[in-house]
């Protein structure tokens, strides 16, 4: 019985999870003291060499959940300066963020991490590989390019991590991922993380994982409830003026504005600039250099407003964002949760405001059903046909159930026009 009690005990520190002293020192330097649920469940399993299928969204602590055990296993094994761990990410920004995490957590291990992504000249990336890298974090396209040119061999890879596999599918990278996996040794530890599990991702997981342990981490609804949320019912043509007025009243604030399209992101950023409000847009049509410069200017406070699309912002961790404004509501309610999670980080206060025109009332109803609470009206009156979510409703509503059923069948979710 004693043994059983120990297994069920809640682990509240990284040292209890089996994390080695050099990594604990790096965590302490960053004031990380308490593991998140996915870290508490994944790290002990991964230190045993098990394969893992993790169903978890951005903001749950995924990076540390896989980076810490990979660093510890590499640190304790025979040293070679060829890549022994490979992490695949769908976007440049996420790849950079993950590599920064490896460098920070592994600061006391002597292990090197190299990051590889397209949209920039490859020379510095090739030079980093030549100097020797234990861990490679890469986007699939550029990785295949460097492999084809003979700059990189994957024959010594011992650990494979696929992060945000569903986003890989959305962006058309699954075939590239399969080509890369074919070049890896069969004997390896493999990890796959995905916020959702469409059929193609499930098939990929079945093909590359060996007897995996599955961990499901539910979205943090508490974090959503902790953010002050409000909705402005406004006509489409009045959104630009409302946005300008709201941001003008937010002194010393750092605001992320979300749009559904790249074209709209550019127009919103240009409108704010012309109104005397410094803003930058980031989306898939921007070069990697332009996107990184925009993020750096936002992080340093050189600009107070970042206008982003969902794909460009997925996985970006920008500390200190005080407000999120949904200039256009997303047509997938899960994206709303991702968006507003960009604020109220690390226990800080945050505010999320949404603009809703007549064409977006269905989106609003779906969002309120998903988060199981009505969003308070900040501006305008709630139209009679907007409906209200019931806070005590158990389980997802009909629109969400229909989307879940279509995903299980491998069909794309329907967009509501």
Account of the 3D structure:
The chain has 417 residues and is α/β, with parallel strands linked by helices. Helix content is 42%, strand content 15%. It contains 18 helices and 14 strands. The strands form two sheets. Strands 3-4-2-5-6-1-7 form a seven-stranded parallel β-sheet, sandwiched between helices. Helix 6 (123-131) links the parallel strand 3 (113-116) and strand 4. Helix 7 packs across helix 9 (174-182) and helix 16 packs across helix 17. The longest helix has 14 residues, at 62-75. The radius of gyration is 22 Å and the shape is globular.
What's the short story on this structure?
The protein has 18 helices and 14 strands.
CATH superfamily of the largest domain: P-loop containing nucleotide triphosphate hydrolases
**Can you count the helices?**
18
CATH fold node name of the largest domain: Rossmann fold
State mean pLDDT (0 to 100 scale): 84
Measured distance between first and last alpha carbons: 58 Å
- Helix amount, in percent? 40-55%
Largest sheet data:
7 strands, parallel
Major β-sheet strand ordering: 3-4-2-5-6-1-7
Secondary structure tally: strands: 14
> Which structural category fits the helices and strands?
alpha/beta
What's the CATH class of the largest domain, please?
Alpha Beta
Rg is 22 Å
Can you tell me the number of structural domains? 2
3D shape: globular
In percent, how much strand structure appears in the residues?
A: 5-15%
- Architecture per CATH nomenclature, i.e. the level-2 architecture of the largest domain: 3-Layer(aba) Sandwich
Unreliable stretches covering 5 or more consecutive residues = 1-10, 390-401, 403-409, 411-417
């Amino acid at each position: 019985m004693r043994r059983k009690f120990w297994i069920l005990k809640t682990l509240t520190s990284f040292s209890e999870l089996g994390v080695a002293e050099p990594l604990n020192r790096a965590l302490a330097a960053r004031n990380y003291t308490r593991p998140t649920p996915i870290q508490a469940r994944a790290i002990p399993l991964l230190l045993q060499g098990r394969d893992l299928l993790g169903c978890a969204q951005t903001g749950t602590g995924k990076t540390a959940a896989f980076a810490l055990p990979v660093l510890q296993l590499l640190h304790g094994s025979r040293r070679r300066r060829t890549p022994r761990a490979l992490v695949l990410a769908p976007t440049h920004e996420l790849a950079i963020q993950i590599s920064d995490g490896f460098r920070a957590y592994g600061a006391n291990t002597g292990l090197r991490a190299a990051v590889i992504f397209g949209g920039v000249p490859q020379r510095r990336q090739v030079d980093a590989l030549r100097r020797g890298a234990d861990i490679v974090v890469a986007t699939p396209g550029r990785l295949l390019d460097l492999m084809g040119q003979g700059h990189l061999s994957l024959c010594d890879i011992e650990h494979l991590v696929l992060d945000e596999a569903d986003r890989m599918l959305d962006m058309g990278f699954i075939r590239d991922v399969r080509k890369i996996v074919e070049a890896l040794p069969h004997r390896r530890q493999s990890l796959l993380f995905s916020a959702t599990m469409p059929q193609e991702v499930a098939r990929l997981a079945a093909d590359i994982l060996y007897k995996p342990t599955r961990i499901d981490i539910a979205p943090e609804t508490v974090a959503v409830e902790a953010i002050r949320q409000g909705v402005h019912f406004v006509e489409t043509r009045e959104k630009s003026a409302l946005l300008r007025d709201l941001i003008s009243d937010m002194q010393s604030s750092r605001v992320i504005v979300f749009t559904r399209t790249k074209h709209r992101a550019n127009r919103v950023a240009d409108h704010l600039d012309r109104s005397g409000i410094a803003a930058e847009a980031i989306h898939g049509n921007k070069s990697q250099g332009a996107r990184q410069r925009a993020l750096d200017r936002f992080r340093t406070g050189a600009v107070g407003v970042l206008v982003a699309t969902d794909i460009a912002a997925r996985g970006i961790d920008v500390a200190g964002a005080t407000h999120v404004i949904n200039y256009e509501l997303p047509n997938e309610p899960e994206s709303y949760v991702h968006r507003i999670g960009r604020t109220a980080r690390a226990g800080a206060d945050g505010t999320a405001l949404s603009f809703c025109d007549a064409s977006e009332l269905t989106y609003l109803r779906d969002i309120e059903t998903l988060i199981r609470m009505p969003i308070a009206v900040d501006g305008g009156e709630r139209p009679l046909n907007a409906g209200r979510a019931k806070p005590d409703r158990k389980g997802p509503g009909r629109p969400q159930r229909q989307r879940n059923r279509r995903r299980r069948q491998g069909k794309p979710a329907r967009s509501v026009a």
